[in-house]
What does this fold into?
Amino acid sequence: MDDSLFRALADPTRRRILELLTEKDRTAGEIAEQFPMAFASVSHHLGVLKAADLVATEREGQFIRYRLNTTVFQELVRYFMTRFGRDSNA
Amino acid sequence: MDDSLFRALADPTRRRILELLTEKDRTAGEIAEQFPMAFASVSHHLGVLKAADLVATEREGQFIRYRLNTTVFQELVRYFMTRFGRDSNA
DNA sequence: GACATATTTAGACGATTGTATAAATATCTC
DNA sequence: GAGATATTTATACAATCGTCTAAATATGTC
It folds into this structure.
């Protein structure tokens, strides 16, 4: 369970990006226009999410499409359940 | 799901403190002696964890005993499962 | 009350972070 | 290749964060 994962989740803009991606995959521009900040700032957040392996990308011509990496979320849930869950000592 | 919760989890020392508290409740001093940093620094981390409601405290004479607030972890797991779980759209 | 122990709070400081603007890279169309 | 669009990278800067030392607070013992 990497440190970058928890740091990536610590910012509300990034969590909102992840929630947007649960609905459907989106291009960087589609994501950026949902936020009041500069495109470059959103791009920075996307980079952090990608470095934490929370999202994956695929180029589509001029566009870059982002999608959730659901595997990491499963690992995250397992982390919390096994260490801190109600019957983690069972 | 409060922002302070995710920020609190972003630091490895604080996550280690939480893991120590899964074993058993501990006083601030017992926790602090597990880390190479100054007691005051650990105390600061304990304050962050408490502000995020991840731990609760109880005074015992001179000592202050910390325990995990497992309820918050349950909410956290639910947050990840419902929003990002494999069948969150089911 | 005076002193010892346990813990937190205050203040300072360097490191990291989030945001902005400007420049760079990549792709598409002509 | 030139120009337009999509996106990232570079750089700068204020804000937040993690740690430290010193001071303050709380409790227990004498």
About this structure: Chain A touches chain B through 24 residues (CB under 8 Å). Residues 7, 10-11, 13, 37-38, 40-41, 44-45, 48, 59, 61-63 of chain A lie near DNA strand C (CB under 10 Å from a C1'). DSSP finds five helices and three strands in chain A. Chain A has a mean pLDDT of 94.
